[in-house]
Amino acid sequence: MEQSDPNRAQAPVTAGNRLTIDLGALSRNWLALDALAGAAEAAAAVKGNAYGIGLVPAVRALSRAGCRTFFVALPDEGLRVRAAAPDATIYILNGLASNLSSMHAEARLRPVIGSTGELDEWAAYRARGGDGNAALHVDTGMNRLGITFAEAQELAADPGLVERLGLTLVMSHLACADTPAHPLNARQLATMQNVRALFPGLPVSLANTAGITLGPDYHFDIARPGIGIYGGPYIEGIAPLETVVTAEARIVQIRNVPAGQTVGYGAAQTLARPSRIAILSTGYADGYHRAAGSTDQRPGAATFLHGRPAPLVGRVSMDLMAIDVTDVPEARRGDWVELFGANMPVAEVAAAAGTISYELLTSLGARYARHYLGDA
């Protein structure tokens, strides 16, 4: 049995799985992207519970590293960031929640206004004496959130609009930045340059993590790195930064299964050889996707223990899954198995499940015992 790593999470015996979250790696990843952003300020996207690692520990670590601006999806997330970083600038990407203008302002949360309805509500609030700040989202080609360029032109014709609405930023979002050669990138950049000309003097934000790597023209004034901070892959052909999250599950049983037998629900996979099968105390209730399982038609994801990969066998169930440890004779009941981390990249596991790293990270369940390396 391999020696226990003193830096690894020491989960209680009551936990079936554990997460080790390296806040030092998180901070170093942000610093690397901040340097790559050049003269632009690097903010941090911490939505989705900071991509599954824990919002408050992530914000505290990033604040210590020098991050001063955070982007979240919802006002509730913004309130939690405000408690962890009292002096931070906080933008709410999903826009102005209906009838909550005063709450945004009182908590110093800046809604990213992306529709004429939101604009009207925010303008009415400001006209009544409200003093909060906001950002303006202009759609440049994603067709998700944001006012149209034509609507932005109409607004820009009002020379007092920026001051009257307390606007501090104009932004958009790249749809295909992870594919550098995609023609939509250049089209969105050109549109955003035109948007900047409409609102001279107003800071501009366009680039996510992948957008930062597209070059200085995409950086504008504020970059918004997300997945790259957390160690996930963010652009074709560029290796991820440092691993931040290691997910592990405990072996609860090992059994010998003859060739020709099946394992798990649906008899999805038939063993081609006599096999040593380890059952792990984790499943889709913990955010490990059911689609990552293995069948006779296609291989699934793999795990890692004792220096070697161990593939999944059969379907992932709610609380359990099986791996083949025939070629890992050291495997024993009670061992911890890496589901993803430095040895088993999260991108590979996500690909086996037909999804992306973002979804796997943000799906991490509440049953993991969480351990933070560095100050949380």
UniProtKB/TrEMBL annotation:
Domain of life: Bacteria
Catalytic residues as annotated in Swiss-Prot or TrEMBL: K47, Y265
EC identifiers of the protein: 5.1.1.1
UniProt entry tagged with the keyword Transit peptide: no
Catalytic activity, as annotated: L-alanine = D-alanine
Molecular-function GO term, any one: alanine racemase activity
Keywords: Isomerase, Pyridoxal phosphate
Positions of modified residues (N6-(pyridoxal phosphate)lysine): K47
InterPro entries attached to this UniProt entry: Ala_racemase, Ala_racemase/Decarboxylase_C, Ala_racemase_C, Ala_racemase_N, Ala_racemase_pyridoxalP-BS, PLP-binding_barrel
Residues holding substrate: R144, M318
Protein family (similarity comment): Belongs to the alanine racemase family.
Protein name: Alanine racemase
Gene designation per UniProt: alr
